[in-house]
Write a structure and sequence with these properties.
The chain is an alpha/beta fold. The chain is built from ten helices and 14 strands. The protein has a twelve-stranded mixed sheet. Strands 1-2 form a two-stranded antiparallel sheet. α1 links the parallel β3 and β4. α1 runs parallel beside α2, α2 packs parallel to α3 and α3 packs parallel to α5. Bound molecules: S-adenosylmethionine and iron/sulfur cluster. Iron/sulfur cluster binds next to loops.
């Protein structure tokens, strides 16, 4: 079975948000005084998550990324990883984390079957980190990166969002550091997904700008075969080291998008920017349905969600309407 939309895009990648809560408050993701958390009873249990992932895999999903909010805040995180890896036809599994709790979990996660990881870090200055995230956890993230290395997670990708006048002077220092540490750095254009209205196109640090900054000091050669990856990758000084730029706004990659998203409260989304969701939690918790009927309804829900996917995200349309959920509640 394949999940093919009306534009011929085959969906193979499921992003699974495990919680909307977080140990940081990155300004582009949620306001520092945010308090509209999803009610605890609405979060999918370990068993519910595994059930949905197993069904997704039976429909051709081959890659699962655990995200959030902060996925390492889930007390059952190691169990979730182990259960996904023990599924028949287990998908490729990865995780995006802020790294704060990685020193505690990296070894256990690797033992449970996690192979690779993305860690978000926007600055190498601890004071700036505190300002950007409203939390004094820079040292924890650096320790987390070291722990990920010792645990043998590979590749380790670093996700960085550059913001005008805030950390846009760090593209080169971050790349120098990443090359020295043997980490794969990717810059992500900031998207209008914060819970406030701070995002403006005028302030956007664009993919072109990032490329030009880096290219002023390093020779960048495009890596062919991008496939469905959102990152345009470049060899640095002939390689093998690479740097990625994800131009979500100015170089949209919607035409090759193969991603679906499951929120931590069990809503299936066909795009980060979708304004509609399909309720899988309601199906799973409907006591009037047999297990067979639940499975069949979830299969239908996957199919209709994929079929209703739009050709593109619309950020660049004048009448663009931001999703109601902030990034932290969708899962990046
Ligand atoms: N808490 C984890 C973390 O920070 O890695 C996982 C969730 S976070 C929402 C996933 C990724 O989305 C992070 O790399 C973060 O930098 C990125 N992100 C969050 N808000 C964003 C925005 N408005 N534009 C672009 N990237 C964003
Ligand atoms: Fe938390 Fe990740 Fe959002 Fe930062 S980007 S507030 S770490 S969910």
């Amino acid at each position: 079975m394949s999940l093919i939309d009306n534009f011929g895009r085959v969906h193979r990648d499921l992003r699974v948000s495990l919680t909307d809560r977080c140990s940081l408050r990155c300004t582009y993701c949620m306001p520092h005084d945010f308090n509209k958390w999803l009610p605890a009873e609405t979060l999918l249990t370990t068993q519910e998550l595994i059930k949905i992932i197993e069904i997704a895999v039976s429909q051709g999903i081959t890659e699962v990324r655990l995200t959030g909010g902060e996925p390492l805040l889930r007390p059952d995180i190691v169990e979730i990883v182990a259960q996904i890896k023990s599924l028949e036809d287990a998908p490729e599994l990865s995780m995006t984390t802020n790294g704060v709790a990685l020193a505690k979990y990296a070894k256990e996660l690797a033992e449970a079957g996690l192979k690779r990881i993305n860690i978000s870090l926007d600055t190498l200055d601890w004071e700036r980190f505190k300002r950007l995230t409203f939390r004094d956890r820079y040292d924890d993230v650096i320790e987390g990166i070291a722990a990920a290395k010792s645990a043998g997670l590979n590749p380790i990708k670093i996700n960085t969002v550059l913001m005008r006048g805030i950390n846009d002077d760090e593209a080169l220092p971050l790349l120098k550091w990443a090359l020295k540490e043997n980490l794969n750095l990717r810059f992500i254009e900031q998207m209008p997904l914060d819970a406030g209205d701070a995002w403006t196109r005028k302030n956007l640090v664009t993919a072109d700008e990032i490329f030009n900054q880096i290219n002023s000091e390093y020779e960048l050669t495009p890596v062919e075969e991008r496939g469905s990856s959102p990152a345009e990758e470049f060899l640095v000084n002939g390689g093998p080291a690479k740097v990625g730029i994800i131009g979500s706004v100015t170089r949209s990659f919607c035409a090759n998008c193969d991603r679906l998203r499951l929120t931590s409260d069990g809503q299936l989304r066909n795009c980060l920017f979708a304004n509609t969701e399909t309720d899988l939690r309601g199906i799973l918790r409907n006591g009037r349905l047999t297990e067979f009927e639940k499975r069949s309804d979830i299969l239908k829900a996957f199919s209709t969600t994929v079929k209703s996917k739009l050709s593109g995200h619309g950020i660049n349309d004048p009448e663009f309407v931001k999703p109601v959920r902030p990034m932290s509640a969708i899962g990046g």
